[in-house]
């Protein structure tokens, strides 16, 4: 590898057959998450991004209901680690998000989950786990394709894969 090139992006896939499997994957992510974990969720309407986020919240021992923060853009939930839940769906442009303090350095103390992360392309933290949720042929089928940016997020993804398999 050229010394100046960025580290290779590693990836893999998990498959889900129903909402409970997606929740369990989220729980495993939440349990294994570290301070500074960033989960960038991508996928069409109804793909399961919020269901995955609810699982992450469970795994982080967040008390209470975690819903998509569609109108307020970001919710904060105390837990084993603080969860910052962002939904970029209604964002006009990424600079607006940065201006609004949606992505903030203090999030390194907790776990940031971003729905519609593709709307923040170019502004996302460099170290992150991207998870693309793709609906399959059957009603409950989803493929979750992950790509890790940075070694700690790759370790996280591999640990979750081990738990889920
Ligand atoms: N395998 C699965 N994983 C997740 N959700 C599933 C699955 N199978 C069916 N579903 C259903 O799909 C829907 C997913 O809704 P969810 O709110 O999580 O989607 P979303 O990606 O957050 O959409 P939006 O972009 O509108 O916020 C739920 O109604 C859930 O019950
Ligand atoms: Mg959602």
Q: Radius of gyration, rounded? A: 15 Å
CATH superfamily of the domain at 13-119: P-loop containing nucleotide triphosphate hydrolases
Which molecules other than protein and nucleic acid are bound?
adenosine-5'-triphosphate, magnesium ion
Could you state the oligomeric state of the chains shown? single chain
Give the SSE order as H and E letters.
EHEHEEHEEEH
- Average pLDDT level: 89
Class by SSE composition = alpha/beta
Strand order of the largest sheet: 1-7-6-2-5-4-3
Q: How many alpha or pi helices?
A: 4
CATH class of the domain at 13-119: Alpha Beta
| End-to-end Cα distance | 32 Å
Unreliable stretches: 1-5
| Portion of residues within helices | 25-40%
Biggest pleated sheet = 7 strands, mixed
* Secondary structure: number of strands: 7
Beta-strand residue fraction: 25-35%
Can you tell me about this structure?
The protein is an alpha/beta fold and 165 residues long. It has a domain of 107 residues: Rossmann fold, CATH 3.40.50. The chain contains 4 helices and 7 strands. It has a 7-stranded mixed beta sheet, with helices on one face. Helix 1 crosses helix 4. The N terminus is likely disordered. The structure holds adenosine-5'-triphosphate and magnesium ion. The site of adenosine-5'-triphosphate has 17 residues, from helix 1 and helix 2.
């Amino acid at each position: 590898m050229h010394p100046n090139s960025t580290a290779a992006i590693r990836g893999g896939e998990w498959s889900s057959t129903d909402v409970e499997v997606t929740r369990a994957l989220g729980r495993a992510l939440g349990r294994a998450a570290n301070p500074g974990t960033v989960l960038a969720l991508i996928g069409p309407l109804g793909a399961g991004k919020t269901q995955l986020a609810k699982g992450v919240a469970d795994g982080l021992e967040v008390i209470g209901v975690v819903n998509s923060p569609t109108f307020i853009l970001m919710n904060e939930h105390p837990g084993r680690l603080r969860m910052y839940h962002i939904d970029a769906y209604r964002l006009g442009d990424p600079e607006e998000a940065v201006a609004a303090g949606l992505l903030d350095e203090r999030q390194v103390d907790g776990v940031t989950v971003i729905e519609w992360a593709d709307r923040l392309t170019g502004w996302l933290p460099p170290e992150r786990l991207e998870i693309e949720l793709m609906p399959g042929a059957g009603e409950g089928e989803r493929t979750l394709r992950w790509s890790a940016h940075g070694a700690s997020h790759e370790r996280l993804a591999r640990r979750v894969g081990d738990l889920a398999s």
